[in-house]
Amino acid sequence: MQEISLVQKQNTCEFLIAITLEKWYKFPIKLQEAKALKAHMCCPCKSQKNYEECCKPYHTGELQPADALLLMRSRYSAYALGLAEYIIETTHPTHPEIGKKIWDWREDILRFSRDTEFVDLEILCFEEQDHEAFVTFTASLKQQDKDFCYTEKSLFEKQGDLWLYKDAEFL
Ligand SMILES: [Zn+2]
Question: What is the pTM of this model?
């Protein structure tokens, strides 16, 4: 069984309300579908695997990432595909973003996803203990035709059976 915090429950509830409102008012939220169509053969996490056999089962909830590295990769590809709810659901309840209005947070993720080309992902280091793991990676991105990259050491924590993204240090 997964342990779901009160904050996550509230966020999920708020998110469902937001989705319902979107459907009612027909806001243009076709980004996910458009980007998902572009997912074509290669998974956006740069694993060289087919998306269907790589991150898609995590995004659809069919499978849970067995370790923090798979979670990290699936979050990168979720950003690339504009899957904001996956980013929200896989964030630890103590992360500062959790305190934001979920609607604003979701909009921020979607905007970042829309404005960014996810060019490459290089995993530099993966250290895992029972309930804590670190993934150090370099992400290469492009915004408005400008290339940039950053190296991040992400901290993940296991809650029950579920790995969650907790914090990050930029190197
Ligand atoms: Zn993948």
Answer: 0.77
